[in-house]
Task: inverse folding
């Protein structure tokens, strides 16, 4: 059965929902957030290097300077700088609030798409965006925020992480028809690895390389990173309305909340369930908006 662009982005969101599980285990294995981020993109680059070489030969990795520039932007901004801002936000204002601010990407993408691609923000789309943001907040926090932990720098870091995440859809859409999704991902992870290696060395954290940590890093790269971003880029090439993309990918929040229960033993309360329902409803409205525009 062939999966369309919407389905591919939804599947990518589900795979991204497993990210918290890998971070949870890797932190307990002794790794810092910076080192975890580096291992993620470095192993992703190695996996794609082997796969593309096996599938199409080493010559297929050669790209034009224009495509390499797109890959560098994706790697440096959407993987490298994004991880730096998100790591800073997590350490300053906590995981839950950082995840909430990350969903500002939904609004950023809608605004940037309207400015750069003249996409129209219809009332239905605006309603879906609002419901989606509210749903993500409720799903992650259960309606309760730790106000005492708020920091202006932490809020700034979280919003900048959301902006970098939003630019993934913008840059990926522009570059999507210029190169193969696997090759584009290969080079974007190469640039991301260089960026995050420099950040990790500057932070002077421990560079642990135990078999357990390296094994977790490999599967962290394979499942939510390589497979997730390949599906995401393939889906982007088929979706004209970019403001729909973060809403579809927000299924990541639902998957993360549900999977996180298995690790922490937390129980979903009514606000969490309402948030999940809002996220699903927003995705239905986005799909309805597409049919109404057709």
Result:
């Amino acid at each position: 059965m062939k999966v369309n662009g919407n389905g591919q982005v939804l599947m990518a969101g589900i795979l991204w929902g497993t990210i918290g599980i890998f971070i949870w285990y890797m932190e307990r294995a002794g790794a810092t957030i910076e080192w975890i981020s580096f291992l993620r993109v470095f192993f992703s680059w190695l996996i794609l290097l082997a796969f593309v070489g096996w599938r199409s030969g080493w010559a297929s990795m050669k790209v034009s300077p224009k495509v390499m520039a797109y890959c560098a932007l994706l790697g440096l901004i959407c993987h490298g700088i994004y991880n730096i801002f998100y790591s800073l936000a997590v350490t300053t204002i906590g995981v839950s609030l950082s995840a909430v601010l990350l969903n500002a990407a939904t609004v950023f993408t809608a605004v940037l798409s309207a400015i750069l691609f003249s996409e129209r923000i219809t009332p239905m789309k605006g309603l879906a965006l609002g419901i989606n943001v509210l749903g993500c907040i409720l799903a992650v926090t259960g309606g309760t925020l730790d106000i005492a932990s708020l920091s202006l720098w932490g809020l700034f870091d979280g919003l900048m992480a959301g902006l970098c995440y939003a630019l993934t859809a913008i840059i990926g859409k522009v570059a999507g028809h210029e190169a193969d999704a696997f090759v584009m991902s290969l080079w974007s992870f190469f640039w991301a690895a260089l960026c995050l290696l420099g950040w990790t060395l500057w932070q002077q954290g421990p560079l642990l390389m135990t078999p357990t940590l390296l094994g977790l890093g490999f599967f962290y790269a394979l499942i939510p990173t390589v497979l997730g971003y390949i599906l995401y880029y393939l889906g982007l090439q088929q979706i004209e309305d970019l403001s729909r993309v973060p809403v579809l990918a927000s299924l990541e929040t639902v998957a993360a909340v549900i999977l996180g229960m298995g690790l922490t033993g937390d129980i979903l309360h009514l606000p969490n369930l309402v948030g999940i329902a809002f996220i699903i409803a927003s995705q239905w409205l986005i799909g309805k908006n597409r049919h109404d525009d057709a």
